[in-house]
Amino acid sequence: MSEDERPSDIGDGSAENGSDAAGDPEPATDGGVETDDVDEVVLDPWGAASVSDYRKLFEEFGIGEFDDVLADVPNPHYLMRRGVIFGQRDYRPVMDALREGEEAAVLSGFMPTGDPHIGHKLVFDEIIWHQEQGADAYGLIADLEAHAARGLSWDEIDEHARDYLLSLLALGFDPEEGDLYRQSTNRDVQDLAFELGVEANFSELGAIYGFDGETDVSHMQSVVTQMADILYPQLDEPKPTVIPVGPDQDPHVRLARDLASRMRYFGVTKAYASFETDEEELALLRHAYENRDAYADDPDQPRCSEAAQWLVAEQLTASAMGAAAFHDRDDLDSLVDSVETTLENAGMEPLRPRTRIVNRRGDDAAFEALIEAIDGEKRVFEGHVDAFDLDRETAEELARQVEVDQGGYGFLAPSSIYHRFMTGLTGGKMSSSIPASHISLLDDPEDGYDKVKAATTGGRETAELQRELGGEADECPVYELYAYLLAGDDDEFATRVYEECVGGERLCGDCKEQAAQLMREFLADHQEKRDEVEELLDAADIELESPRRG
């Protein structure tokens, strides 16, 4: 969840007009971590960040396209409008809350392993934009992670942490309306991490992160602490919360969503009879109920035994059920046999749709309070309640409110948005170990100018070819600087640069000169603002020196 020295992605090579090195690596234009297997995408929160095909993130990891929700985002940030923010996971509750003026939160963290750079600015901007739209904003220093996963000393962490916070404030974060903290001194986060750790185990962390017998226990603890960070904005009350990150941090988001569910007192599902079912069995019962006219003596009250006989005689197919999960006949036949037996045992019990609220972690008092809160027809069992007059959404909100009233968390699953990685200025990956590949927010403005001037581009080999064929802006780290940073909120300017490039009107030398000047101006202005917010940082409610120094 924290953004460390990994920047953010795309790039190529450049001479005065175009490419200066035919052997330069191909740019990474898409999200995840590249491997030797071009068909494999691995998301590693501590690995080298690069992605060759963002589409695979949609297909393999269930990340949704941001374009699916963009039209409904109030006053979208330019990073959203330009596709730099390309993905989302369950962002709609946050978006709806912002539009309706309801409670929402944004949180992201920074692992202070070096200078903040222009890749980190993407996350700074996303936090600040959400704060400006009315969300409660949280910025954290992931110092426990930096110490455990990167081995930094507390002295080094303190030095870098101050720089991250100054840049966040200089870019517009309001510390009076937001919350800044560091993991190592936030006792609430540490206490929550302890509780979340009860619901996580080593096998699970090993499967997600590749941890093995050589992994430090502190490294594993830092993961659970990050889960607590993600859920921290909901400690006082449940609220839609978004975590802006690069796609390499998605494993953290998925685990946090899972743990949020496990911490809930109650789970809400659909059901059709008093017995328990899994998702595949539920799909079969739904199919039987929807076809009750074909077999029930009284379609208004079909019996389980009737449904059992029909299922056996029907010779169902997966396509008829709309169930793509069944890949072969044996799977489906085995499922039908299992459900048929269960239905026969239920006998004359009516097959009726109902909303089931299952008691997962609630004590007796909480379960009794839940039963009392459900109006209308209901049936109470040892570990669950079946409500016949509640839809699922209403039941979920009711269960959450009872949980909170009974001292539980009532966590909502956290949402996330994902931005593209920035390409290194020298092509390939942006890396803190290659100074020429990235621009630090602390770089001397003249050094920033020089780095842009020396950057590779997506230009052609000669000016003549550039004019004839146009440049390859989509593979150019210099154009990326315009789109991600230098054009600011001016979409018309960013579009003009792009169209002039691909149309052959803009040559790389002039383009880089303009970008270099804009970068010099940005760094000078940013560093002046950093000086201006020094007093704001000193007055902020965050420990700037770790008590763990040494």
Features of the shown structure:
23 helices, four-stranded antiparallel sheet, disordered N terminus, eight-stranded mixed sheet, 12 strands, alpha/beta, Rossmann-like_a/b/a_fold, 10% strand, globular
Question: What report would you give on this structure?
Answer:
It is a single chain. The protein is an alpha/beta fold and 550 residues long. The chain has a domain at 267-405. It has helices at residues 55-61, 67-70, 78-81, 92-100, 118-132, 143-150, 154-170, 187-197, 202-209, 217-231, 250-262, 279-290, 304-314, 318-321, 329-346, 364-373, 392-405, 445-453, 463-469, 477-486, 491-502, 508-532, 534-539; strands at 2-3, 64-65, 85-89, 105-110, 136-141, 179-182, 241-245, 266-271, 354-359, 378-380, 384-387, 415-419. Strands 1, 2, 3, 4, 5, 6, 7 and 12 form an eight-stranded mixed β-sheet that branches. Strands 8-9-11-10 form a four-stranded antiparallel β-sheet. Helix 6 runs antiparallel to helix 10 (217-231) and helix 7 packs across helix 22. The longest helix has 25 residues, at 508-532. The radius of gyration is 27 Å and the shape is globular.
